[in-house]
Structure formats: C-alpha cells, structure tokens
Amino acid sequence: xxxxxxxxxxxxxxxxxxxxxxxxxxxxxxxxxxxxxxxxxxxxxxxxxxxxxxxxxxxxxxxxxxxxxxxxxxxxxxxxxxxxxxxxxxxxxxxxxxxxxxxxxxxxxxxxxxxxxxxxxxxxxxxxxxxxxxxxxxxxxxxxxxxxxxxxxxxxxxxxxxxxxxxxxxxxxxxxxxxxxxxxxxxxxxxxxxxxxxxxxxxxxxxxxxxxxxxxxxxxxxxxxxxxxxxxxxxxxxxxxxxxxxxxxxxxxxxxxxxxxxxxxxxxxxxxxxxxxxxxxxxxxxxxxxxxxxxxxxxxxxxxxxxxxxxxxxxxxxxxxxxxxxxxxxxxxx
Length: 334
Prior knowledge:
Layout: H1 2-5, H2 8-17, H3 23-27, E1 30-32, E2 36-50, E3 53-57, E4 62-67, E5 74-75, E6 80-84, H4 87-115, H5 121-146, E7 149-151, E8 156-161, E9 168-169, E10 174-179, E11 184-191, E12 203-208, E13 213-216, E14 219-222, E15 232-238, E16 251-263, E17 265-267, E18 272-274, E19 277-283, E20 289-300, E21 304-309, E22 316-318, H6 321-332
Antiparallel strand pairs: 1-22, 2-11, 2-16, 3-10, 4-6, 4-9, 5-8, 6-7, 8-10, 11-15, 12-13, 12-16, 14-15, 17-21, 18-19, 19-20, 19-22, 20-21
C-alpha cells in the first residue's frame, strides 16, 4: 500500500495551497491599472461668487413699514422689496416747496426793484442764488420721497434679508443681498512666484470636493494687479451658465492645467488608508485577493492618485476596498 500513497501526497498538499477563489472574490469589480495620459495641474483653493450681486441699501432715513422679500425668494428687476415710511420725507418735500416759493417771490421782488433802480445788481444776484439753492433742496426732497420704495436692482435670488419690519433704515445700511444664480465664478488667489506657470493659454477644471463634482471652466481672467499686503494676484474663473447646486461663498478648488504626462494611477476610492499607510486589494492571476501597501503621489485627474511604488502595469485592483476586505476575511475563515 505504501507505493500507492507516496505519489498522492504532493497532490494533496498542492490542493491545500491553491484553493479556488470564493464567489464573493470573483464578483468584485476590478480595474487593470496601466500608465495613461493625465493632466498636470496646479491646484488652488478658491471661493465661489456670483458675477452679478448687489447689496441693496437705503438712501433715506425712515422706519420700514413693509418688508416684502425674504432669503431664498426669486425676484425680478424693479420688483418691490420693502417700503420705508415716507411721512417724514413728505414733510420735507412740503417744507422745501414752501422755501422755494418764498425764494422765488424774493427774487421776483428784487428783480422788480432793480428795474426801478431801488436795489443793486448784487442784491438781485443774492436773491437768484437763494432761489437756485431752494430749487436744489426741493429736488433733493422729492428724490428722497421717491427713495422710500426699495426695488430689486436685478433679476435673481434674495441671498439674505438684513432687516425686519419696524427696523430703522439709514442711508448706506444694507437691507437685502440679491444675486443672479445664472452666472457664477470662482475667485482664486495666486502667489506672485507661481504666476509664470500660468502664462499663455490657460485651461482649468473646478472641483467641488463636498459634492465630489468637477466642471470645466468656461473662461479665465488674470487680474493685472497684485495685493500689496499679501503679494497675491486674483484670478477669475468662470463657471458654466445655469450651473445648479453651487452657492456664493462656498468652497471650490481650481486645477489649472499646465500640461500632460503618462502616469500609473488608481482611483482614490480604491485606496484603503490606515493612518499613514495606504494600500489596495490586488487580485492575483489565479483570482485570489491580497492587500498590498502603496507609496502614493499627488492627486491627478478626476478622482485619481498617482502610484509611485507598490503596483505594476497590468495588475488588477479591487475598486471597493470594503467589499474586498470582507471577501478576503470570508475566504480566510473557510
């Protein structure tokens, strides 16, 4: 019997070592990594702003008797937003009107007396100056009365209402902030030493990290001046028209495209991080999974990370590290 058992032992040992992959391991989505062209970018943190935005202020003093708009409301250009108590303005108009009539009567009287040679030309000139001043005051009072109605300067959204009904409006005091959501852009600040990298035909992509979203910039304007305190230059990066879900003041990251190079990358979502250690699950040719540590470079492209060491072209990487870890644990427990 011994001669029969001897040749079977190596086969049994091999069967233990090379077990077939489990169904969970086979069902995992994988990606074969290969070097491919990626954009070389210079990322800059930025802030979103509306191209058309206005802070609506009062031009006259008075109590707000009506506030007709609130934050989030859609408004049209010329639409009534609030109304200021105009009784004080009306009283000022009446007073200015009375002063004008008196000045006019004085001027006409002085002119008549001058023709009769009872007063000098200087007296007539003083009366004319007083009349002109009264006319100007009357016009200002009438304009002030018309400023009692607060109208929207543009069509868009009310971003914020700064006052409540009954508040006292003062000249220059903000009442509403209104912006047009159809036109948005981001403002990036570039250090002066980085400006030579951005010369020539600029292209950029804008990342919204909180939304995991990327959009192509439609235009870039490098402003021709630098801040004397911070030594940075502002760059305006226009976003596509009617871009939904982007609000003024929100965070964005502009990736200025400087060129292109061949790099080996993996999707950022495939990387498993434990402190300072980064790893991916690699599928061997026979189908089994193994966790492998990587040395990673910078983020490149859209949601990709450059691999500096730990992977070779042609190897398969599991796209979902959580599912891969569960499958590998289940296989180890068999």
